[in-house]
Protein 1
Amino acid sequence: MKRVLFLGLLALALPLAAFANSSTDFVVLSSGGLGVGSTVTLNSTLNAVLGFNGGGLVTGSLGTFSFTTGALLSSSGGVETFASGGSFEITGNGTGGLPNGVIFKGTFSGPVTLIESAEQSTLSCDVIRGCSVTGTWLNTGKTVSGSFNLQEDPGVLIGVFNVQGPSPVPEPGTLSMLGTGLLGLGLLVRRKLKA
């Protein structure tokens, strides 16, 4: 009987656990460049999203992606370090399954590093360098952290923001199926206890 109860709970918990740990990648491809000065700025089109609300890869003009780092802290040998803070915002335009309006809003929680060479520039905010982008999914109010890496080759800029995905709001049908399943499982356990 305990085995039946354990299997039932496991069957319910596994899909929820897998869904809770899903991540979302936002990709920016741009022919423009970074604005580098006392801060680093980017205002670009959001070109691809993978895993938003559990969905697959969606491409096209999906919205905007913009950020501004904190102020320049140091510069040495082609490596510039910018302070935490600044702003980080992703806005959807209502296409590709993204809502219309601001989706994610946050800041850089640690120093952002810009490495420049003659061939390319790389902007990084990741755990290895003690940085993350910390912000809020505005559709759920959930606060999460993620990494951001951007590479600028001559004429092409590619940026990827990876963050734990927002949990979609369950549909009423899904909730009723879950409730019915739990009710059935409870009745099965009750029947086994009486026997």
Protein 2
Amino acid sequence: MHDIINVIFLALVQGLTEFLPVSSSGHLVIAQRLLNISEPGIALEVWLHMGTLVSIIIFYRRVILDLVRGFFKLDRKCLMMVGSIFISMIPAALFYMFFHKYVDEIYESPKFTGSFLVFTGVVLIGLRWVRCSEGELTFKRAFLTGLAQAIALFPGVSRSGMTIAAARAVGISPVRSAEFSFLMVIPLIIGAAAMNLMKTPSGTEGISGWLLALGAVISAVVGYIAIKVLIRLLKDGRFWMFGIYCTAAGLLVLTLM
């Protein structure tokens, strides 16, 4: 029974916080400390991330299908998007390659998590007063957005929040910012899942297969809903309000931990 509750809770956290700009890693650290929730094993982590990957693919299925078709037809816009996604991956990949040990150590510190949550909150609130121009996606804008994704490797820094905020700041429209933010994370999720699977080629770490599948389904369903909510708030100009939550959560962590 404990395993079922643990998996359901972690799946809900993953589905909600992977896409809403509140930091999934930060909430996992907080949950471990306050609720005595154990860190997911590698197998469960892979399945939960695959669930959120499915939610992205389903939500953007038409965009992805058009992108694949256009790529093989050598359509200029599609080639530009694929190139932009590749370029956006470079900062995070290099940062993780050289500093992953340092980042892993920070995950042990709630104080750092709280500070980074406050940082995320300040950035998101700042969007309330920033008037951004709207232009096309370019390689330069993709790289700058990728830098924001690299920063989001720290616990408490929201990947979706940072990348969407960066995309808005460099002149990409709200809906296009969200689309690019979610498309650019697909290769990273697949790559991270592949690396984790190589670490545990033989198993599920004591978790039954149906529980892993349950976690993936829950994270996929919740993730899909979270994407819809985020897009609506972006269109309504209320995306910055997540900053209030992140700031409050971060200050609470710094106070209590």
Protein 3
Amino acid sequence: MNQWLGLLRSLVIYHNPALRRAWRRFYGEVLDPGDIAFDVGAHVGTRARAMRSAGARVIALEPQSLFAGFLRRTLPRDIVLVEAAAGRVEGGADMAISSRHPTVSSLQPDFVSGAATAPSFAHVVWDKRQRVEVVTLDGLIAQFGVPRYVKIDVEGFELDVLAGLTQPVAMVSVEFLPEFVPMTRAVIERLAELGDYRFNPVVGETARFLWPDWAGAEATQDWLASLPADYGSGDLFARLEGA
């Protein structure tokens, strides 16, 4: 029963019409028809559907059986669903599942252990394990082509996802959490290894960039370090210069 309540909670939060309209507008401004987009951690498919509305060819990854089953039944047929996680190497991994809050299920043990002392996760219990398939971004590129955009929302596993990518792509977004700033700092450093990126956050589900101008890695690191623990989460977008 808990898992179905968790799915219902996610649908209420992320699948409401106003939020869907906001993300359709946002992706209509950053994607062009025919662009390839990878949605890594598709959840209930809100972002995947919004990218599709912009004309993108969407590849949606979702390893959790609960959400993958929902997406299999409800996604438009032209969105490709890959029932797997993305990581450093192809294979398998054990995901820590929260039945009541499945959106924060994670493949990153440090995230799960660190959340035990994070106030915003005090109500979360990871009470199950699921063995999931793992693919790499390089493998997805070999199969589907180079994406214009890769959205990554994988609860602390972002660096591992990017470790499976060996070439820069035009735009990447990763979830940021003020209580886990070192994880986001490591992601910024990884992106700097891949190419010359500039950054801009989207706070919460506002579906709009926070800054009028894109910032360099150092300024973005400073901004992250200044955030109070109760600031809330969001998406940090990285745009490759000259792309």
